[in-house]
Amino acid sequence: MSWLPKSPKARRRLWVVAAVAPVLALAVGLSLYAMRDSVTFFFSPSEATPEKAPPGRVVRLGGLVETGSVVHDGSGQVAFVVTDTVATTRVIYRGDLPDLFREGQGVVAQGAFLPDRTFRATQVLAKHDENYMPREVADSLKAKGEWRPAAGTPGS
Fold first, then answer.
1. d(CA 48, CA 54)
2. Measured between alpha carbons, how far is residue 111 from residues 4, 26, 62, 64 in Å?
3. Model's pTM, two decimal places?
4. Span 92-109, mean pLDDT?
5. Contacts 24+ apart (CB under 8 A), 127-130
6. How does pLDDT run across 62-89, given as a tens digit for each residue?
7. Buried b / exposed e across 2-18, counting CB within 10 Å, b at 16+?
8. Are 62 and 44 in contact (CB under 8 A)?
9. Contact present, 68 and 140 (Cβ < 8 Å)
10. What is the 3-state secondary structure (H, E, C) of 114-142?
């Protein structure tokens, strides 16, 4: 055992580190494993491919509500189209929409894609004043060259 330190104090430290390291690694591993379901990814309609956002996986979809696409049915279900000017995605939501939800405005919907690539939203978030657009939506529009600064400032 020539690799062990000669000092009894140093040996004790080595044994403590050798005992604590696996326990700490196990705790970190279990924590990361437990949190894997709480991570929600954000996609724009053009980024939401079946490979990145498979049916049934909870994601956030953001973009602009396409003008003329909002359809209310009698049962409280609302269908609308979210676009990033490159692609569009049909969204179905059952419930009350935020008061500030409007056509042509930024929106983020949380939910999952159905097998037919329709997005079933469980939550819809809208802007909170006339200068706000969700940061993810603004960044996505900037990356596509469609950002209109007069329409809103990200994160305001």
1. 9
2. 56, 32, 11, 17
3. 0.63
4. 89
5. 127/100, 127/152, 128/100, 129/100, 129/156
6. 999 999 999 998 888 999 999 988 899 9
7. eeeeeeeeeeeeeeeee
8. yes
9. no
10. CCCCCEEEEEEEECCCCCEECHHHHHHHH
Residue 67, both tokens: 């003008």
Amino acid identity, residue 27?
A
CA 78 to chain centre: 21
Q: What are phi and psi of 36, to 5 degrees?
A: -60, -30
pLDDT exceeds 60 at position 12: yes
Q: Sign of the C-alpha dihedral, residues 115, 118, 119, 121? A: negative
Burial class (CB in 10 A: 0-12, 13-18, 19+), 138: buried
**For residue 155, what are the β-bridge partners?**
none
H-helix or E-strand spanning residue 12: helix 8-35
Environment class of 84 (CB within 10 Å of its CB; exposed 0-12, middle 13-18, buried 19+): buried
φ, ψ of residue 126 in degrees (nearest 5): -120, 175
